[in-house]
Amino acid sequence: MAGIDMLTKRFYSYSKMYSQELREQSFVDWPFREECNCTPEKMAKAGFVHCPSQNEPDVACCFFCLIELEGWEPDDDPWSEHVKRYPNCGFLTMKKDFTELTVGEFYLMEQERLKVYHRKVCHKKMAYFRDDIDHTLEALKSLGFTE
Ligand SMILES: [Zn+2]
Fold first, then answer.
1. What's the rounded Cα separation, in Å, for the pair 38 and 27?
2. Ligand 1: centre distance to CA 104 (Å)
3. Structural domain boundaries of the chain?
4. Where, per UniProt, does this protein localize (predicted)?
5. How far away, in angstroms, is 127 Cα from ligand 1 center?
6. How many angstroms does the Cα of residue 134 sit away from the middle of ligand 1?
7. In the 3-class helix/strand/coil scheme, how is 79-141 assigned residue by residue?
8. pTM of the complete model beyond 0.85
9. 4-142 homologous superfamily
């Protein structure tokens, strides 16, 4: 799972990933190319950007809802996998092609994308904060304090 720095980096760099062509170009080292469901074209059509790491070469991330999926199988259908994991993704529910959006509609999309990013960062920070509390409680217990 991506940390806060990675989420931030992705949020800013993915502002150009409304373009299906650019998303498709990100799948340079993608293992599934022919005679399967998750080709770079279909992955890009479903909103995904390839964001491999050393340990996870097949991680794909939605440029809009920032959901990360890995462990792809040739038969996986990218659009249905995306719907299964995050049916409310603003990209999936977009009624038009990106090139047909008005400036106002694009502004609303970007506002929604920003909200998703903030929600994810807040969840991460809350999780870190909970871990800190747990560590502090452990430390106090080891010093003999009781709850
Ligand atoms: Zn999404």
1. 11
2. 20
3. 4-142
4. Chromosome, Centromere; Cytoplasm, Cytoskeleton, Spindle; Nucleus
5. 22
6. 32
7. HHHHHHHCCCCCCCCCCCCHHHCCHHHHHHHHHHHHHHHHHHHHHHHHHHHHHHHHHHHHHHH
8. yes
9. Inhibitor Of Apoptosis Protein (2mihbC-IAP-1); Chain A (1.10.1170.10)
